[in-house]
Amino acid sequence: MISPSKDLQKFQKYARINSGNNLLLSIFMEILSLIWNQYLYIPLFNLLIWLYLNYSFFNLGIAVIVLTVILRVVLLPLTFMTEKAKMARQQIDEKVEEIANDFADDPVKKKIAIRQYLKTKRIRPWAKSMSLVVQGLVLVLLYQVFVGGINSQGKYHLLYPSMARPDFINTNFLWFDIGKTNLMAASIVAAYLFAEILIEQFEKKRQSQENATRRELFYILFFPAGSFLILAVLPSVKSIFILTSLIFSSIISIISFFISRGKAVAAKKGLKI
Predict the structure, then answer these.
(1) Are 192 and 246 in contact (CB under 8 A)?
(2) 128 or 84, which is more confident
(3) Other residues' Cβ atoms within 10 Å of the Cβ of residue 262
(4) Separation between Cα atoms, residue 252 and residue 260, nearest integer Å
(5) Is the model more confident about 247 or about 206?
(6) Which tops the pLDDT comparison, 2 or 162?
(7) Residues 6 or more apart from 70 whose CB is under 8 A from it?
(8) Burial readout 216-247 (b: 16 or more C-beta within 10 A, e: otherwise)
(9) Less packed terminus of the chain by CB within 10 Å, N or C?
């Protein structure tokens, strides 16, 4: 009997390894699919239909707005942490500017003093990142809900036994169908983003007395434009979700601004809040 060659033995070894890797990958994908469908997609679909039947006047657009508000309320602890970090960052910028002025004649001492101060004021952006990840996840899930049509009978089997089956789902919101693309809805989101960025840049310029850099100008123009192009080809439910989330964030920022301002005024008067 002729023994197999070394090349054949290597091939058989690699084949066994690849077979094992493919099996592990297949198991991993099945677990991921199970988690995605059973613990994310199906619960979100049922929650959306429940909101539609009970708290949205049988309008899916309103149901999406209510869903977005519920999500943002759940994420409020992360939102407050983000706003607190933003206020701390503003205080840090003011302190760094003060240090820079104190050591204006000695660049070396200025650099050392700023570095030592920043070591004691670490800001971790993980709260904002986590909030954005969760919202992005819901955006993807909403897209999956609307793929193939929300009124498709093929999706009703995903409803829990205790959930009532609607005869028809009304996707008309204001002047458009949220299951279809709408340029006006995408334009409103882009305009809101543009206005929000402009206000932020104006406030930054007012504090630092510096003009926007080329990179910032690129961001001001192309981020809203890019958002419009993406939303223009997606179901307008995305625009509803994002616009609601942006408005919610703006309200939180306004509240944080007045709280911060109140604390600053109280500090000047020697009071405590």
Answers:
(1) yes
(2) 84
(3) 12
(4) 12
(5) 247
(6) 162
(7) none
(8) beeebeeebeebbeebbebbbbbbbbbbbbee
(9) N
120/105 Cα distance (integer angstroms): 24
What would the mean pLDDT of 159-166 be, rounded to a whole number?
Answer: 86
Question: CA 184, CA 132: separation in Å to the nearest integer?
Answer: 24
- Contact present, 194 and 80 (Cβ < 8 Å): no
Which is more confidently placed, 92 or 221? 221
Task: Tokens 């084949």: give the residue.
Answer: 15
Residue 173, H or E segment: strand 172-173
DSSP letters spanning 201-252: HHHHHHHH--PPPHHHHHHHHHHHHHHHHHHTTS-THHHHHHHHHHHHHHHH
Please name which of 191, 231, 244 lies closest in space to residue 61, comparing C-alpha atoms: 244
pLDDT digits over 18-45, tens only? 666 677 777 877 888 888 888 888 888 8
> Which residues are paired to 221 by β-bridges?
none
Amino acid (one-letter) located at 258 = F
Q: Return d(Cα 218, Cα 221) in angstroms, integer.
A: 5
Instruction: Report which secondary-structure segment, H or E, holds 176.
Output: strand 176-177
Q: Distances from the Cα of 269 to the Cαs of 84, 242, 262, 263, 273, in angstroms?
A: 22, 41, 11, 10, 11
| CA–CA distance, 255 with 248 (Å, rounded to integer) | 11
